[in-house]
Design brief:
This protein is α+β, with helices and mostly antiparallel strands and 766 residues long. Helices cover 39% and strands 16% of the residues. It has 24 helices and 26 strands. The protein is globular. The chain binds protoporphyrin IX containing FE and iron/sulfur cluster.
């Protein structure tokens, strides 16, 4: 008997995928094969896969520290790589784009199958409404993409230097505060920009968000490259829909507030305006120095007025495109109409929490996870996913519950949860029981225990400290203490990132944390910087400031300490960030100062390991990151640290701590110089004298640091300030040193960029 022929997904799904998408996936599969045969350069292949959402993952360089030493992990394909320093068979991550976070039950079921068959059975919701699957083998990705394509999902441009997922309020269309439902507009934008030829040549990623109102957090417009807030304008001809447009926001090492670009952009203008903006970004944005390549730096460099002028100029010459507006007329129709069906009139439940015959926990769940819709008789239910994760089994159960109770639609949120909308109030208890059976009925959505967190050291190569380990511990403690927590504490937001890159959005939390490390008596100890006073509301309206690093093991005490101080010292209805502002950064730091020292190993061995990781802490696992395709070397970290320090110096200056500002600015220059020295001497040490002298001999005397226009001027800032030694600073002097430090760090970035280029040219020539 002939062997049974295995049906290929490509054949099985033929005709069910959009033809263009099917071709793209075939082309990707061919590139994969060529790379396997070593016929495509690894860097080129890396950018190709990133543009399809196929990312690297921690330990994919084939090395892992087991607590004693770095060991090699054996992978079958030996030296074959899928990017610089990224082993072919090493598990990787697949990011899956979910525009405005909208998924159908059918899509969720396919995601569940994929997680089970190709990954570790976990679906992870990201901080920008995407899904991620981890521990994927590169060779499974084309089929995975086909199966997604067959249910209308693409992973195209989920990573890489592209327009990333377009986010929007998860309760758009059912929210009482919104001006109008932004869903159709965000979808039109996602369709328009996906694969758009004008959006293919960026130096860095580009993120767009939509918000239905200015006051709530949902859209987080303030931290986006391009953001839209719904507006209406009335005149004698009636009421028109449009958007307030904001540009140049972003998190990352140094967060930037978005700037108002236009108070009212009519809806038919949002696509051409975006096209003009991405064209200016593609043309003038930095390409070589990735650390300066987001649009925020372009706008800061040329100024908002000039940027606007360029965009208007670009807009004026754009060739008319019917896809700019052929969708507009349909956009005012209800995106999700009220469910019709045989269930009769919606019930007249007035107190959705009062039903108790489904268990004692129901009331708590209803209080936290249920909110009334604008439409009478319906509610939105938030399904809280601890760490943003659910299992395949849970996802299937959720898909069923979505079909049964929620009008057949679900949305992911930037707080890494899922919301069900259009749930009839009188069916809430039944839905609740379904969620209990799925293990998805945890109360506390939107409260202090609902913590946002990046992937961190679990799977991210750049992770410094375990953001997920810390978050699991904090959430557990906060849930246990829930009954005793004051309402004002319950309402706080905590967000955690594993490093300064802010993927966990720690800047827009009441209490944010990002992973850092400190050397203590020759041993590295995991720490978190404590970031206070960020604003979640008002679209992430303002950013918190770092007040100091605390050992990871002491972070739960930080939360306790800050909550106690807030309760004891706030007066009246002041919010937490008003409280932090009122006590000032120094006093806030003072509250935590005794938590900062690390005990000797004998007195606290747990301080020397990370949450959820039994190994003794080490930084040896820190990989070469894949931040949208480019390798991130240790020098990048030094430069980022220098930036953070000069930022701190600025804050000290604002606090009128002139000596502190001056000293910190000097330290930031030394840090940047160290980063450069490291390019030639891998172990530059910490001694300032030797850093300055090495910097002088390797970069100044050789003129490597020289700028085409300014010559060695910026290096002189460091030499001059260093030779001065310490002394009392006046405000004016301190301000100058801070400014100079900024320029020095800029020049260090530029010098680094030049050296990378030179290296690339040399390797091409050889
Ligand atoms: C230098 C490199 C990186 C920078 C500067 C960076 C920066 C950011 C920032 C600021 C966000 C937050 C929200 C936003 O504005 O989108 C974000 C999102 C995110 N980052 Fe990173 N990131 C880097 C690398 C990575 C890596 C290596 C991983 C893990 C593999 C990662 C995982 C994430 C995730 C899961 C999100 C949510 C993304 C989404 O769904 O679109 N990031 N990143
Ligand atoms: S914040 Fe750092 S550790 Fe967390 S995902 Fe981003 S790059 Fe990785």
């Amino acid at each position: 008997m002939a062997a049974e022929k295995k049906v290929k997904w490509k054949d099985a799904l033929a005709g069910r995928l959009d033809a263009a998408l099917a071709d793209e996936i075939d082309a990707f599969e061919t590139q994969l094969e060529l790379r396997r045969q070593d016929k495509v350069d690894e860097k080129v292949f890396a950018e190709t896969r990133l543009r399809r959402g196929v990312y690297g993952q921690r330990y994919d360089n084939g090395q892992r520290h087991d607590g004693v030493a770095v060991r090699a992990i054996e992978f079958p394909s030996a030296s074959l790589t899928k990017g610089p320093d990224t082993a072919w068979d090493a598990p990787g991550m697949q990011r899956i784009k979910i525009p405005f976070g909208g998924v159908t039950p059918e899509q969720l079921e396919v995601l569940a199958d994929l997680a089970e068959e190709y990954s570790d059975g976990i679906l992870h919701v990201t901080t920008r409404q995407d899904f991620q699957l981890h521990f994927i083998h590169i060779e499974d990705t084309p089929d995975l993409m086909r199966r997604l394509g067959a249910v209308g999902i693409t992973s195209r441009e989920a990573c890489g230097n592209t327009v990333r997922n377009i986010t929007a309020c998860p309760i758009a269309g059912v929210c009482s505060d919104e001006t109008f439902d932004v869903t159709p507009y965000s979808l039109a934008m996602a369709d328009f920009l996906l694969g758009h030829p004008d959006a293919q040549d960026f130096g860095r990623k580009f993120k767009v968000a939509f918000s239905g109102c200015a006051g709530k957090a949902c859209g987080l417009v303030n931290m986006h490259d391009l953001g839209f807030i719904a507006r209406e304008r009335s005149d004698e001809n009636g009421t028109r829909r449009g958007f307030e447009a904001w540009v140049g926001g972003g998190l990352g090492t140094i967060p930037y507030d978005a700037k108002l670009f236009e108070e009212f952009v009519p809806v038919e203008e949002i696509l051409p305006l975006s096209q003009a903006i991405v064209r200016v970004f593609a043309r003038l944005g930095e390409k070589r120095n990735r650390a300066r390549a987001r649009i925020k730096f372009l706008i800061a460099r040329i100024g908002l007025e000039e940027f606007k002028r360029l965009v208007e100029e670009e807009r004026a010459v754009l060739r008319e495109d019917e896809s700019w507006s052929n969708w507009v007329d349909g956009a005012t129709a209800e995106f999700e109409a009220e469910p019709a069906g045989p269930r009769g009139e919606v019930g007249a439940v007035t107190d959705v929490g009062a039903v108790t015959d489904v268990g004692a926990e129901y009331g708590r769940w209803a209080r936290d996870n249920v909110q009334g819709q604008r439409q009478h008789g319906y509610s939105v239910v938030t399904v809280m996913l601890p760490l943003g994760d659910m299992t395949s089994r849970q996802a299937r159960q959720l898909a069923d519950l979505g079909s049964e109770y929620a009008n057949g639609r679900l949305r992911t949120t930037v707080e890494q949860n899922v919301v069900l909308r259009w749930v009839r109030d009188d069916e809430l208890p039944a839905l609740y029981l379904g969620l209990v059976a799925a293990g998805l009925a945890t109360a506390g959505a939107g409260t202090i225990s609902d913590i946002t967190v990046c992937p961190g050291t679990d799977t991210c190569k750049l992770g410094i400290a375990s953001s997920r380990g810390l978050t699991a511990e904090l959430s557990r403690r906060l849930r246990e203490a829930d009954d005793k927590l004051d309402e004002s504490i319950r309402g706080l937001h905590i967000k955690v990132s594993g490093c300064f890159n802010s993927c966990g959005q720690h800047h827009v939390a009441d209490i944010g944390f990002y992973g850092v490390s400190r050397k203590v008596a020759g041993t590295t100890v995991p720490h978190f910087q404590v970031v206070l006073g960020g604003q979640w509301e008002s679209n992430g309206g303002s950013y918190g400031l770092a007040v100091g690093a605390v050992p990871s093991r002491a972070i739960p005490l930080v939360v306790e300490r800050l909550s106690d101080a807030y309760l004891a010292e706030r007066d009246g209805a002041r919010t937490f960030n008003e409280f932090i502002e009122s006590i000032g950064k120094k006093k806030a730091r003072g509250l935590l100062e005794d938590l900062m020292p690390v005990p000797a190993y004998e007195d606290g061995p747990e301080f020397y390991s990370d949450w959820g990781d039994p190994r003794e802490f080490t930084m040896s696992d820190l990989g070469v990151g894949e931040c949208a395709g480019e390798v991130v070397a240790q020098t990048d970290f030094d430069l980022a640290e220098a930036e953070r320090q000069v930022f701190d110096a600025q804050v000290l200056l604002d606090d009128k701590d002139f000596d502190g500002a001056d000293q910190t600015a000097l330290r930031s220059m030394l840090e940047a110089a160290k980063g450069l020295v490291r390019l030639e001497n891998p172990d530059p040490g910490q001694d300032p004298d030797s850093i300055v002298s090495e910097f002088r001999s390797r970069f100044y005397d050789t003129e490597l640091f020289f700028d085409r226009f300014a010559g060695g001027k910026f290096a002189q800032y460091l030499f001059h300030r260093y030779e001065q030694g310490s002394g009392d600073s006046t405000g004016e002097q301190a301000r100058r040193v801070v400014e100079e430090a900024r320029l020095f760090i800029e020049a260090a970035h530029a010098c680094h960029g030049r050296m990378l280029e030179k290296k690339a040219a040399e390797s091409q020539a050889s």
